[in-house]
Design goal:
This protein is mostly beta strands and 90 residues long. Helix content is 0%, strand content 29%. The strands form 2 sheets. The chain has a 3-stranded antiparallel β-sheet, with no helix packed on it. Strands 3-4 form a two-stranded antiparallel ribbon. The model has no long low-confidence stretch (mean pLDDT 85).
């Protein structure tokens, strides 16, 4: 997981094959995970995440929490599109 992002845009794939492009301007964190032996990789923009080890505070103080006042609303935007990755010239 990345708690501090340098970019809110990524392209993932293998050169010469189909990949994905993601834009996630509204998300402050990013998670990259899989399960041992699994045939998948998860690329996930996150607003919040699991409590850090040893966290014993209030929910409102948890890192990554987005507090939304009663009656208020908030939107997050994520765009995913397929892209063709060009072969890399060496």
């Amino acid at each position: 997981m990345w708690e501090r992002l340098n970019s809110t845009h990524l392209t993932y794939g293998v050169a010469g094959d189909l990949g994905i492009e993601m834009a996630f301007e509204d998300f402050p964190h990013f998670g990259l995970w899989t399960r041992p032996g699994a045939g998948f990789l998860c690329l996930e923009p996150w607003q919040g995440y699991i409590s850090p080890l040893g966290f014993d505070g209030e929910l409102a103080d948890k890192p990554g929490i987005a507090a939304i006042a009663p009656g208020a609303s908030r939107q997050w935007s994520l765009t995913i599109r397929p892209v063709r990755r060009l072969p890399v010239a060496i």
